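re: ur question from yesterday

yeah so i grabbed the chain u mentioned. its 531 aa long if i counted rite. heres the sequnce exactly as i have it in my notes:
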Amino acid sequence: MKTRYALFSALMLVCMTALSCKETQPKTKLDETLEILDHALEHANEYVNVRSLEISSLQNMLNSRGVNLQKEFEIYGELFDLCSAFNFDQAKDAASKQMEIAKALHDPYLLNRSLLNLSMLNTKSGFFLEAARSMEAIDSTMMDNALRAEWYNVCQRFESDYSEYSKNSPSPKINAFRQKYISMTDTLSSMNGQIRVQLAISEGDYQKASRINEYFIEKLDHNTHEFAIHAYWQATICKHLGQIEDALCWWAESAIADIRGAVKDNASLCSLANELILTDQVERAFRYISFSMDDALFFNAKLRQNQIASALPVIEKRYYTAQAEKRHSRNIAFFVLSLFAILLAVISVISVHYYRKAKKSAMEIEEKNKQIMDYCKSIEDAERSLLEANHALSEANAAKEEYLGLFLSMCSGYIDKLKKFISRDEKEAELRNFYKTFDTAFLELYPNFVSEFNALLREEERITLKDGELLSTEMRIFALIKLGITQSSHIASLLRYSVNTIYNYRAKIKNAALDDREQFEDKIKKIGSKS
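ran it thru and got these structure tokens back, copy pasting raw so excuse formatting
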């Protein structure tokens, strides 16, 4: 008995020693900045929704009465500014509309403005051939100083990005164009500052670049895209100066500003992930590079996707290697604890053996063994029956799911046919009845779906249903996924939402997943399944 207590005490001492080794380290500035970045990433969809509403508002203005071609040109200009770092296709469409209006007005100055917008957009997005064609179409005789300065800016950006993309040595034209732009613009403007910083970096004068950049960092609102750009260049400067932790902070600050501004065409998060992997923050680096790739796909331009794709395999490999090492460590810990548990069990059995009479103990053990064998046999019979019942139930559920999916499509088609003959209010009533009927039928199949769905989410992200509500919109989307309807376009058609809305809902819920977001939908499909 004393031996057993001694070993148990030793086990507890080992566990307490292991826990005490986790010393509480004070948070650094980098830790605090990364926490702010993580919080911003959690709310990224909210910022995207705000930007989408701003874009929708401008698009609605185009349909307003009294909007002439000149006003329409300006509205498309505002749309271009909102979309140029948010969605490539929408920005390109806005610039193209400006060109059409400028041609209709026979205004070469406005045509030059729209061509410059399109040239810069194509350049930043890696469509260099299209950018070159747009630049060739510009009439250089119809420019004022402001437009000519912008033309120099486009030229320097084209030469710089093309040299980087083609892996060629930087063209001497780059700095020549930069010098011309600087000489023609206000030194207090953010763009002038960016060009001067880039010029100083290209000349290797990082101290000068830092002095110029710090002036604008102090001056600008930290939630603007201009600040994000200056913060990115400050990170680049710090990296060249060997100040790696400062560089990480500035990339994080830049990423925070871009996320809050719903900027999808960004470089900071990818750069941050590439550096974090070198500091063994593997999980965070993997999360950041994955989010960065999602942004690049949303923006839909090839240059950023190519840049991220080149970094993704390295980070992904390190991530899965780190996960394997963690599993190995857990297995070792489990093995050690199992040995302690077995040892304690052995001591307990020995103690019981010495405290009981040998003959009585043998008879009791024989009787117990017989009971256990009978019990095991009954369990085997019950398990066999349960497996047969589960197989039959699975087949029945599969048929129900198929019929429910067919029913859903038929009801949706029915509403589509009715919409020509009923009012909007009646259509809305039909939709509500359609949703309620689907929710009721689905929950008849999977009565525990709501609780099991919430169990897959972090506690603070779990969904509370409103009074009278059977399924929320998010739950209804994943109910369709459970039924095998996985394409966002199909779900959007059935539920009467846009594809972007379905994509945002899916991304939001997956980001709130308790475990690996990539496995979330597979877990949804397993709800209610018995194996």
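noticed a couple things. Residues 267-349 form one domain. also Residues 1-8, 13-23 have pLDDT under 50 and may be disordered.
anyway ttyl
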